[in-house]
Design goal:
The chain has 3 domains: about 90 residues, Alpha-Beta Plaits, CATH 3.30.70.100; about 120 residues, Rhodanese-like domain (Oxidized Rhodanese, domain 1, 3-Layer(aba) Sandwich); about 55 residues, no CATH class. Helix content is about 30%, strand content about 20%. It has a 5-stranded mixed β-sheet. It has a 4-stranded parallel β-sheet with strand order 6-10-9-7. Strand 12 and strand 13 form a beta hairpin. The two termini are about 35 Å apart. The relative contact order is 0.12. Bound molecules: zinc ion (2 copies).
């Protein structure tokens, strides 16, 4: 494992995000790095892979800067880069929900250990809320979690509103989690505005939980927004809970449909991807279809991500 995949965020005001974008990118260009770093006036959200020899240099780059003091950098080993290229971008919002969020109203953070204990207590007035999209939560989730059937970040506010009409928010304690923690930071104020009094956010998200508590109370694997797409949360984590859409055997690898106009996400096994020429359905086999050779060996970037990236914020 010669590479490391790093994920962190900071919510700290950046007065001149453009200056920070330039500075950050300039430094990363001196390293063997690839990834996606978003910089906004509200903070930074970063996912990147580094050659192991450069990890320390990058961590000390962050440590030297007060604004990154709160960064909880989660690190996974990897045999290769988890991104195609390096992009350091300015964003209006770190999580694209198209609304102002009052970050002073965030929920309380609880550690992975506290999270596990809270789950083991099993309190009838507590809900476990997965705030990720449906294509993420279908490959892995915490036992008993409410999993919204949403496809983009933008749909979360409407989901939250509906949830608050179905259960009494003033009597419900919410245990909230996402991949790395940042979505909880931005969604918890929305829930507070809807009347939820007690919100507990899993600090560092499922990534940190897997590193510290292993797969306790977790089912399946973890969806991530990089070339790996689906990863185990810990060394022991091997469970697959989804099926190949064609042959119904166990499969948790995502592919994009080879039809460029469809490009839809599909869970499939390698044999069926080959047999179906990389297409998600019969009608996709005609038209603009990519060759599938590269697809089978490395299932690569996918629609949801490029869709979100394309959004002009
Ligand atoms: Zn199959
Ligand atoms: Zn298709």
């Amino acid at each position: 494992m010669d590479y490391s995949v790093l994920a962190y965020y900071v919510l700290h005001p950046f007065d001149d995000p453009k200056e920070e974008r330039d500075r950050h990118e300039k430094f990363l260009r001196t390293l063997d790095s690839k990834g996606r770093i978003y910089i906004a006036s509200q903070g930074v959200n970063a996912q990147l892979s580094l050659n192991n020899r450069d990890v320390e240099a990058y961590l000390s780059f962050l440590e030297k800067d007060e604004r990154y003091k709160e960064a909880d950098v989660k690190i996974h080993p990897s045999s290769e880069h988890a991104f195609h290229k390096l992009s350091v971008k300015l964003r209006k919002e770190l999580v694209a929900i198209n609304q102002e969020v009052d970050l002073t109203k965030r929920g309380a953070h609880i550690s992975p250990k506290e999270w596990r204990e809270a789950m083991e207590k099993g309190d009838p007035n507590t809900i476990v809320l997965d705030v990720r999209n449906n294509y993420e939560s279908c490959v892995g989730y915490f036992e008993g979690a409410i999993r919204p059937d949403i496809e983009t970040f933008r749909e979360f506010p409407a989901f939250a509103k509906e949830l608050s009409s179905k259960i009494d928010p003033s009597k419900t304690r919410v245990l909230m989690y996402c991949t790395g923690g940042i979505r909880c930071e931005l969604y918890s104020p929305l829930l507070k505005d809807l009347g939820f009094k007690e919100i507990l956010q899993l600090k560092g998200g499922v990534i940190r939980y897997g590193l510290e508590e292993g797969e306790a109370h977790w089912r399946g694997k973890l969806f991530v927004f990089d070339d790996r797409l689906v990863i185990p949360i810990s060394k022991e984590n091997k469970e697959t809970i989804t099926l190949c859409r064609f042959c119904q055997t166990s499969a948790d690898t995502y592919y994009n449909c080879a039809n460029m106009d469809c490009n839809g996400l599909m869970l499939a096994c390698p044999a069926c991807v080959e047999k179906e020429r990389g297409c998600c359905q019969e009608s996709c086999k005609s038209g603009r279809v990519r060759s599938i050779e590269t697809k089978i060996s490395c299932p690569k970037p996918f629609r949801k991500l490029s869709f979100d990236e394309k959004q002009k914020l």
